[in-house]
Amino acid sequence: SLSKSVFVRRVHLITFSGIQVGTAVVTGQNGRLAMGRLGALCEQVKELNFQGYEVILVTSGAVGVGRQRLKYRKLINSSFADLQNPQLDLDGKACAAVGQSGLMAIYDTLFSQLDVTSSQLLVTDRDFRDPSFGHQLRETVVSLLDLKVIPVFNENDAISTRRAPYEDSSGIFWDNDSLATLLAKELDADLLIMLSDVEGLYSGPPSDPQSKIIHTYINEKHGKLINFGEKSRVGRGGMQAKVAAAVTAASKGVPAVIASGFVTDSIIKIMRGEKIGTLFHNEANVWDCSKEVTTREMAVAAKDCSRHLQNLSSEERKKILLDIAGALDANVDLIISENEADLAAAQDSGYEKSLVARMTLKAGKITSLAESIRAIADMEDPISHTLKKTEVAKDLVFEKMYCPLGVLLIIFESRPDALVQIAALAIRSGNGLLLKGGKEAMRSNTILHKVITSVIPDAVGKKLIGLVKSKDEIADLLKLDDVIDLVIPRGSNRLVSQIKAQTKIPVLGHADGICHVYIDKSADMDMAKRIVLDAKVDYPAACNAMETLLVHKDLNKTEGLDDLLMELAKEGVVIYGGPVAHDTLKVPKVDSFHHEYSSMACTLEFVDDVQSAIDHINRYGSAHTDCIITTDKRSADTFLQQVDSAAVFHNASTRFCDGTRFGLGAEVGISTGRIHARGPVGVDGLLTTRCILRGSGQVVNGDKGVVYTHKDLPLQ
C-alpha cells in the first residue's frame, strides 16, 4: 500500500516521460500533442503547488512537436515527384531543435491560464559529468521552487552526444525515465511519479485478460516473473524502461509510482495516499504480500473449500451449522465484549444513534441468531435437489438439479449480525464466502468470524469463509470475475450503485427501497391505519419501510384519513405532498416522487383509482415492495398482477418483506433484479442449476436412429 509518510517531505518529482512509453500520454493516436491530458497534468501540478508541495516536471514531446512541424513544412515544399515518393524519415535531433520552443510555449500557455509560472531546463548527460554541475543544478532548482515556479526538465536531444538518441543507451542517462531517476537522486526528491498509458505494471501484457496489476513491486518476487509485452507505439524503452528506472530510484531511497497519465486525477490520488498504480520502495521486500495476491488467494481458497463442503453429506453439513450455533451460545460474553468496544469507538467518533443501534449485539440477539442457524440447519438440503427428470430417449435420462453458485462476495455495512446469517446460508447452500463488513464493526466481525470458522472441520477448510478487513481490497476483489461468482452489497444506495459500476461480476441487490402503500376507496380505515403506521414507523430506516402513501381521491379530507395522518405526525413522520395533496392539504410540496429525504419522511399523493396507483408505482417505485389496502377482491387482484415489483402485498405491511419472516431462515439481501433471484434471497437464491444426462452409449449422429420420447419421470 502507499504510505502517506512518503509524501510529506520536501521535493516531489513528477516525470511525464516522453519519447518512451510516456510519450503515449503526451501524444494522441495521430502523433499530435494530447492537449486534454496536458491540461489535466498542469491542473494537478497547479493544485499541488497551491497546497505547498514543491513539484518538478520532467517532460518529453519536443521531438513529437518538431516532427509534426517538419512534416508539414516538408509537405508544403514538396514537388509532385516528391509526393509520389515520400521520404518521411526525419532526423531526431532536428525534430528536437524545432520542437523545443513549441513544447515550452504550450506549457507556458497552459500554466499561465492557471496563474502558475513555469521555467525550462534543458540538460544532457554530458552536463552531469561535471562534478560542479550537481551543486549548480540544486541551487537553481531551489531558487525556482522558493519563487513557486515549476521547473520543467527535458533532455536536450538536439545536442545530445549520443549518435542515435532513440537507440543509444550509453551514458549517465539515456531517456527521460532514467533522467527522472537521476534528477530524483540529485535533488533529494521524496517521490517519483512516472505516468504511462496503462494503470501500472501488470504481471503480463495489459491486453492479456489473465494479467493482473501489481500494486507493490518486490524485485525478488516479480523481477524474473513479469512478461513484458510490446512497447508503446511511440517511445524508446516501453514499460521495461520505466520499471528499470523505478527500481533504480527505489534502490537510491526515492519511492516511485508508475501510474496512468490517461486518468485526469491520478497524481492527486497518489499524493492523497490512494492505491493507484504500482509502488516501488526499497523496503517492499520486507512488507507483506501485495493485496492483489492476498485477495486472489483468499477467493481461490474459498472456492476450493466450497468444493470440499459440497462433497459432504447433508447430515455433515447440518452438523457444521449446529456446531456454529453452539459456538455462538458458548461465546456470548466474548462476543459482547468485542461488540462493546466497537460501540464505544463508534460513539466517540460521533456516529449516528441509528447506526450504533444497528451495530449492537445483546445476549438475546446472539441467542436469536443461534436459533435462526438451527432453523436453517433443519431445512431440506437444497444441494443436488432434482427439479426435473425427463426420459429423452430409451435409456437416456435428463435431470435438472440445484447446485451452489461457487464463491459469494458479500459487502455489508454496520450490522455484524448479518455476518452470522450470511455465513449460515452460504454453508447450507454449499458456497464459499468472502465477507467485508463496515470498519465501525471490525472487532465484532472479527470475533464472529473466528467463532464460526473455529468449528468448520479440516475436511472442508477454515478458509471456506474469508473476512476482508481493508476497504482497499474491495477493488481487487471486484476484478476477480474468474473466481467470484456473485456479489451481494447490503447497505446504502450509494454503496450498491458503486459496486454495480465497478465490477463485471453479477451483482444481486437493490439500490433503492422506495416502497408504496395504496389505500383504495373500499379500504377498512382501521386496518389501513395499523398497516400504514407499521409500514412507516416499525423500522423507518429499513429498505422495506413505506416511503410513499397513495390514497384514493374519494378519501381526501375524510375523518379516517385525517386520523391516520395525525397518528403519523404523532410518531414524528414528516409528510410531503404531491401536487394534489399539496394543494388540498397544504403540506410541504415534494420535489420529486423519487426523493431522498430522511427515513422519517413520507410522500402523500391522491390518485384517481387503482390503475392510477399501479401506474404511479411502476413509474416512480424501485420494484422493491408495494402494498394495496382494500376489501375489493377485483382491485386487489389487479394490483397484485400488474405492479411490477419483487414483492406485492394485499392488506399486509411492507415490513413483512424479509427472509426470516417468509420462512427462509435468513436472507443475504433483497433483490429487485429480474435475473436469477428476486425478493428476499435465502438459500434457494444462492443456488443455480446444472444438467445431468445419464445414457448407455447413445450418440447423436445426425439424430439418425434416435427416437425421442421426452417423457416426464417421477423425481423420486
UniProtKB/TrEMBL annotation:
The EC code for this enzyme is 2.7.2.11, 1.2.1.41
Under which pathway is this protein filed? Amino-acid biosynthesis; L-proline biosynthesis; L-glutamate 5-semialdehyde from L-glutamate: step 1/2; Amino-acid biosynthesis; L-proline biosynthesis; L-glutamate 5-semialdehyde from L-glutamate: step 2/2
Q: Name one GO molecular function term.
A: glutamate-5-semialdehyde dehydrogenase activity
- Keywords, A to Z? Amino-acid biosynthesis, ATP-binding, Kinase, Multifunctional enzyme, NADP, Nucleotide-binding, Oxidoreductase, Proline biosynthesis, Transferase
What region holds the Aspartate/glutamate/uridylate kinase domain? 21-260
Looking at the record, the residues that make up the Aldehyde dehydrogenase domain are 294-556
Q: One short Pfam family name for this protein? A: Aldedh
Please give the catalytic activity noted in the UniProt record. L-glutamate + ATP = L-glutamyl 5-phosphate + ADP; L-glutamate 5-semialdehyde + phosphate + NADP(+) = L-glutamyl 5-phosphate + NADPH + H(+)
The processes (GO biological process) annotated in the record are: L-proline biosynthetic process
Where is it found, in Gene Ontology cellular component terms?
cytoplasm
Instruction: Note the InterPro entries from the entry.
Output: AceGlu_kinase-like_sf, Ald_DH/histidinol_DH, Ald_DH_C, Ald_DH_N, Aldehyde_DH_dom, Asp/Glu/Uridylate_kinase, G-glutamylP_reductase_CS, Glu/AcGlu_kinase
Q: Which protein family is it in?
A: In the N-terminal section; belongs to the glutamate 5-kinase family.
Q: What does this gene product do?
A: P5CS plays a key role in proline biosynthesis, leading to osmoregulation in plants. Involved in abiotic stress tolerance.
Q: Which HAMAP family match?
A: ProA (MF_00412)
PANTHER family, alphabetically? DELTA-1-PYRROLINE-5-CARBOXYLATE SYNTHASE 2, GLUTAMATE SEMIALDEHYDE DEHYDROGENASE
**Record's protein name:** Delta-1-pyrroline-5-carboxylate synthase
